[in-house]
Write a structure and sequence with these properties.
The chain is mainly beta and 113 residues long. It folds into 2 domains: 27 residues, no CATH class; 54 residues, SH3 type barrels. The chain is built from no helices and 13 strands. A hairpin with a 3-residue loop joins strand 11 and strand 12. It is globular, with a radius of gyration of 15 Å.
């Protein structure tokens, strides 16, 4: 059994593994495991509505009211989404929105903050 690395942000020893990422429950910092390369880093890039290139950990702002499927909730224009994670697929941003929870967004409906 290998030991988990300490958090580089707050130096806590309580990190855990979540897929291909390490997560610190003390401060919420997430970072990639050593040697981990996602397919998005190998050539393709994700761009926001204005054409700016997005990377993991960016903060973005929603530019259109978005209905949450299966719910009566709406993500309002101007909502800031911190610490995004880029993924493959039609909805290419994986994030957590305060008051709503985990969501996947399309990059065409956000702009880099």
């Amino acid at each position: 059994m290998s030991a988990m690395p300490g958090c580089p942000a707050c130096e806590a020893d309580y990190t855990y593994e979540d897929g291909a990422m390490f997560v610190c429950p003390m401060c919420g910092h997430e970072w990639a495991q050593a040697g981990d390369t996602s397919p998005l880093e190998e050539g393709s890039s994700v761009r926001d509505a204005n054409g700016n290139t997005l990377v993991d950990g960016d903060t973005v702002t929603v530019i259109k009211d978005l209905k949450v499927k299966g719910s009566s909730l709406v993500v309002k224009v101007g909502t800031r989404v911190k610490n995004i994670r880029l993924v493959e697929g039609d909805h290419d941003i994986d994030c957590k929105i305060d008051g709503i929870g985990a969501m996947k967004l399309k990059s065409e409906f956000v702009k880099k903050a």
